[in-house]
Amino acid sequence: MRESNEMNPDDKSLHSGLTSADDRVKLSHWLPPRHGIVPEIRIGNNWYSIFWLLPLGALVLIIGILLCLELRRIPVVQDFIARYPGSSSSAELSPSVGFPWWLRWQHYFNLFFLMFIIRSGIQILADHPRLYWNVHCTPGTEWFRFQKEVPKDRIWTAKDDSVTIPGWLGLPGIRHSIGLSRWWHFSFALFWLGNGIIFYLLLFLTPQWKRIVPLSWDVFPNALSVILQYLSLQFPSNEGWTRYNSAQQLAYFLTVFLAAPLAVVTGLLQAPALANRLTRLSRIINRQVARSIHFLVLCWFLIFTVIHVSLVFLTGASANINRMFAGINGESIEGWIVFLGAMLILILAWLGASPFTIKYARLVQKAGRKLLGKFFDYGESLSPQVVYTEKDISPFFWPNGKLPQGIEFERLIAEKFVSYRLSISGLVDHPCEFSMEELRAMPKQEQITNLYCIQGWSGIAKWGGVPMRYVLKVVHPRSDGRYAVFYSFGEGGEGGIYYDVHTLENMQHHLTILAYEMNGSPLSVLHGAPLRLICPNELGFKQVKWIRAIEFVSDFKHLGAGQGGYNEDHEFFGYRAPI
Ligand SMILES: Nc1nc2c(c(=O)[nH]1)N[C@H]1C(S)=C(S)[C@@H](COP(=O)(O)O)O[C@H]1N2
Ligand SMILES: [Mo]
């Protein structure tokens, strides 16, 4: 180990190797578009396009209608419908209850928030367009994908795998924009959750809960009767002002009390901060299972919305719209005016959201951080529980990032990093340079942990290396050295050194290591040789590979674009990333 002089000459070149970044998304600098394929579902070894669901759905609908038309001629069925006309008497409300203003606003807010949640959610999914039922993300084991098979003849990174989805659908509608879509997704999830909690409260503080909570078993035969009546094209009477029919009751009940909470829980379980803590739960509902269920809940919401809206229009549009948008029991023009105004705002917001995000990307990032920062701080303070064993190690580990280029690094690889020196400088009492031999001679820590990439995949590996807290003891940061900056040999997507900033607390963490081994073997170049950061309480992008130098600083505003890391600068990621 060599004590270097106070001012490391390399620091200057490191700083100038960082690039600033635009505050808006410049499409000419961005990852070029890449189109995926029509979504496919795997059954056994065969993949089937979801396009088949359209003719299949139409066929089921036609057969259902023909069948129910026939059934309705049968006396037993007629008796059944007479006995269970479609609504449970226990659902009856006094006509004075009606649809109060708060209910109507909440219904609209719900729709408005969900629009952003769904669009940004689809955008997030497009960053790793595959879903699995197992804890690993081995290509070929997914059950759903909208990207072709992973090529085997070349390096195919997780970023390569991300796909473009249409701009009107995704938010913000450009490839690998997960940094931005997450701000939308989490912020509006928070608004939606707040709206939902108020809804639950008001529902039970007023008689409104009786509309959607079934109180008698006759809801099941009545729901069956309603479906028979709809499909035989003789609709039951619409008594929506005082009570919903039983099919409505069941559908609304399941959506409000099952699908919505499930969306929240499976969303949260994808965060390393929680998955690493709720270990018993995340053994069963691991991130990949949670992602799959989260997606199926989306499918439920979409199917529900299509059927719900169709029936609103088929079962007496004017009466239905007047109830839910104006609180009027009748067919007045007023309901339509409010409805059309509400839809106009919705459409304008829909059309404006993506262009706004692209133009004011930094603002979206900063607003998101303002709103959600506390949750991220809290998430970072939750220390992971280490529960994995050798048996849990993932057979495949997605690589990410751009390999370092240039002869300097080539030479290091060729000589097996013998002349490599890790430089640690900045606000420390003992600036040092360490060779690999010296690092290997330090205390070694091994840990089997899950690496959660922001894009959606995850992988379990055994990492071996020097605990960062030991390195801190040697170099001893000064009291103003509050942040550690990790500089890579590799560049980020748009050029310029890849770097990331961590708090000192995070560096003291007992699971933060400078890894030089992966799964018992020397770390491969693909995964970050000679040295990479492993800190399992953060998402993957903070775990810098190909570490060239570490610098301690009092602030990071002067580095790059000042956001605390390459992806924070260029891709609008959050600086703290435990979620
Ligand atoms: N230097 C550098 N380090 C990096 C990246 C990168 O692009 N450059 N990508 C990060 C991301 S996004 C992830 S998910 C992990 C992936 O590590 P792996 O390639 O070993 O799977 O590395 C992180 N470290
Ligand atoms: Mo990542």
UniProtKB/TrEMBL annotation:
Q: Which SUPFAM superfamilies match?
A: Oxidoreductase molybdopterin-binding domain, Transmembrane di-heme cytochromes
Please provide, in alphabetical order, the Gene Ontology terms of the cellular component aspect for this entry.
Answer: plasma membrane
Bilayer topology term: Multi-pass membrane protein
Q: Which UniProt keywords apply?
A: Cell membrane, Membrane, Transmembrane, Transmembrane helix
Coiled coil (residue ranges): none
**One GO biological process term:** respiratory electron transport chain
- Any idea where the Cytochrome b561 bacterial/Ni-hydrogenase domain is? 99-327
Under the heading InterPro entries, the entry gives:
Cyt_b561_bac/Ni-Hgenase, Di-haem_cyt_TM, OxRdtase_Mopterin-bd_dom, OxRdtase_Mopterin-bd_sf
Q: PANTHER family from the entry?
A: BLL0505 PROTEIN, PROTEIN-METHIONINE-SULFOXIDE REDUCTASE
Name listed for the protein in its UniProt record: Oxidoreductase, molybdopterin-binding
